[in-house]
Specification:
One of its GO terms (molecular function) is pyruvate dehydrogenase (acetyl-transferring) activity. Residues 46-320 form the Dehydrogenase E1 component domain. Its cofactor is thiamine diphosphate. Keywords: Oxidoreductase, Pyruvate, Thiamine pyrophosphate. The protein is of the alpha/beta class. The chain has one domain (5-314): 3-Layer(aba) Sandwich (Rossmann fold). 40% of the residues lie in helices and 11% in strands. It contains ten helices and nine strands. The strands form two sheets. It has a seven-stranded mixed sheet with strand order 2-3-1-4-5-9-8, sandwiched between helices. Strands 6-7 form a two-stranded antiparallel sheet. Helix 6 links the parallel strand 4 and strand 5 (176-182). Helix 1 packs antiparallel against helix 2 (55-62) and helix 1 packs across helix 3 (78-84). The longest helix is centred in the first third of the chain and has 26 residues, at 5-30.
Length: 327
């Protein structure tokens, strides 16, 4: 396998944590929104974009990052946040709109921000890439070997912010890595109907930078490709684009009727679940027994359950505090 055992175990644990977190959020978000879907009802209001199935994109590269490295995320951010080490209790409380949240309940699901681990949701489409470029520029000017990673969906690679940011990063040889999560749909529009190139890593050639494509939602290959990209960035060799073929098991947002998808698409995707693949690998390689993995999964579930309990039990902000902590 040639990947440190502790890294593979961390990747598995983090993918399980992310998946269970999203499964739990499905239930929490659904409260009060049935039988008629009402986006403003229930304890978790607003739009909700979940990352079930896309975990390899986050763990494969975050396995190589430290607290000093920056990560920006779009509107589907939970797997990135969990892999970067964002405080789970504060993150959940933020989505519940509670005063104990990362942004004191003012930001919500699409505006998560944790300066302790240099993580932020930079906005929808390609809005987070310029922020990552700024972080990469700061690292270079300070003479640090820090890396900035911008996660985007494949549809965002058609936005101006993607091209403008990569051009500057290439000119200045910044330690930037753009990870494109190709889940096949920009909302409800398929990639084949919106994008002229087969895969967005090919766009790297236009900027004279490195590009790589990871097929089959493979977390192990994502780890290997990311390792090379992070080494290039830290050694001053400039930016990279990584696109990973990943699989969104849920809709673009919770409540999405998904009329654009084939009825068998999701069941077929779940048969090639990357979490099950890594679980099997850990046992085949003799890294962990089934019992050890079950114990690890129980530990992770307890952590997630405690985060949701913390969020539910926390207080809402007072109306008079609406303008506090606003900059």
């Amino acid at each position: 396998m040639k990947i440190p055992v502790d890294k593979v175990k961390w990747m598995y644990e983090t993918m399980v944590k992310s998946r269970y977190y999203e499964d739990t959020m499905v239930e929490a978000y659904s409260e009060g929104k049935k039988p008629v879907f009402n986006i403003g009802a229930g304890p978790v209001p607003g739009e909700m974009h979940l990352s079930t199935g896309q975990e390899p994109a986050a763990v494969g590269i975050c396995a190589h990052l430290t607290k000093n490295d920056t990560v920006t995320s779009p509107h589907r951010p939970h797997h990135h946040a969990i892999a970067k080490g964002v405080d789970l209790k504060k993150m959940t409380a933020e989505m519940y709109g509670k005063v104990t949240g990362l942004g004191k309940g003012k930001g919500g699901h699409m505006h998560l921000f944790d300066p302790e681990v240099k993580f932020s949701c930079g906005g929808i489409i390609a809005a987070g890439i310029p922020h990552a470029v700024g972080a990469a520029l700061a690292a270079k000017k300070k003479g640090k070997d820090w890396v900035a990673v911008a996660f985007i969906g494949e549809g965002a690679a058609n936005a101006g912010g993607f091209h403008e940011s990569l051009n500057l990063a290439a000119v200045w040889k910044l330690p930037l890595i753009v990870v494109v999560e190709d889940n096949a749909y920009g909302i409800s529009v398929s990639k084949r109907n919106s994008t002229a190139v087969e895969s967005n890593d090919k766009r790297a050639a236009a900027y004279g930078i490195a590009g790589a494509y990871v097929r089959n939602n493979d977390p192990i290959e994502m780890y290997r490709v990311s390792e090379a990209a992070v080494k290039r960035a830290r050694s001053g060799q400039g930016p990279s684009i990584i696109e990973i073929e990943t699989h969104r098991h849920l809709g673009h947002f919770q409540g999405d009727p998904e009329l654009y998808r084939d009825t068998e698409e999701v069941p077929n995707l779940r048969k090639i679940d990357p979490i099950l693949k890594v679980r099997e690998l850990l046992q085949l390689e003799g890294i962990a027994t089934a019992k050890e993995l079950e114990d690890l999964e129980e530990k992770v579930k307890k952590e997630v359950d405690e985060a949701f309990a913390y969020a539910r039990d926390s207080e809402y902000p007072k109306p008079e505090d609406a303008l506090n902590d606003v900059y």
